[in-house]
């Protein structure tokens, strides 16, 4: 159909300040420096995607990502967006080495295709549930900061706290005890971002449980290539062990599952893109592996896209899509379906992702 042909694209920077630095064991974001990819069809319908650049985790830079998105635009121009699967397959080939750009380009294609169809992204992915509620992250910092932040967010209505650990064990015990004091009875997830050896992780978790704190899931306790370590911890720990940095591709997840190394996997669109994320979801579901939906530092645009992916497909045990709450003003419009206590109420989305960058006129 002529109206569905992609006529224009643009690539722009998306910058925002943060309320507090987003610090994990491997590094820190002091501000958000992402990119927006926009597409426009011949009938004037537009679609938007966001590339979340986490150089300290992925090595991807914004310069490279913006160049990749220019290439994606050139590839997509003239294509009929009704064949969205053909577009996603072509993008997967073009952008394999720059997954943040791939996720943004796929996001814009699917936003555009679903806007043209007049359906929301979560209905497009399966329509399983209209609501998902995210945890909130307690970043690396002092115990007092952890206490104050947790108390504030619990009062706002958050009930699940994801604690970043891995810089100093004694300090981490104090932080976790501060979180428990500020939010008694609330669930705790741990994310060490590769910080420990398997032995250290076991020691840390055993001591934590001795103190009466039992996380519901332990994410990426060991280095990304330490598959034996993950397997050891999956056998020894009573809670799910979740791969994040170790799970960057469908192949990675296939190998982890075959070796019995994990009991949960963190799906991030920024790592996998939509096409592969859907395949990882199917593989994990078929093998009884639990699923987390996660993200890098992402504004409402990419976060709402991820929420719709998870809500539409269903079957996610852990939802970790809280980074919009760290961003001062991303300029995104239409995000009123994300409440201040972390609930994405997607039945309010009319079509596509439902979010428009403020820079788009
Ligand atoms: Mg993680």
Q: Could you list some keywords that capture this structure?
A:
TIM Barrel, eight-stranded parallel sheet, alpha/beta, 21% strand, Enolase-like, domain 1, 40% helix, binds magnesium ion, 361 residues, three-stranded antiparallel sheet, 12 helices
Main beta sheet, described?
8 strands, parallel
Q: Which superfamily, in CATH terms, is the homologous superfamily of the largest domain?
A: Enolase-like C-terminal domain
Unreliable residue stretches: none
Helix content: 40-55%
> For the largest beta sheet, what order do the strands appear in spatially?
5-6-7-8-9-10-11-12
The assigned CATH architecture of the largest domain is Alpha-Beta Barrel
Give the bound compounds.
Answer: magnesium ion
Q: Strand-residue fraction?
A: 15-25%
Number of domains: 2
- CATH class of the largest domain, anyone? Alpha Beta
Structural class by secondary-structure content: alpha/beta
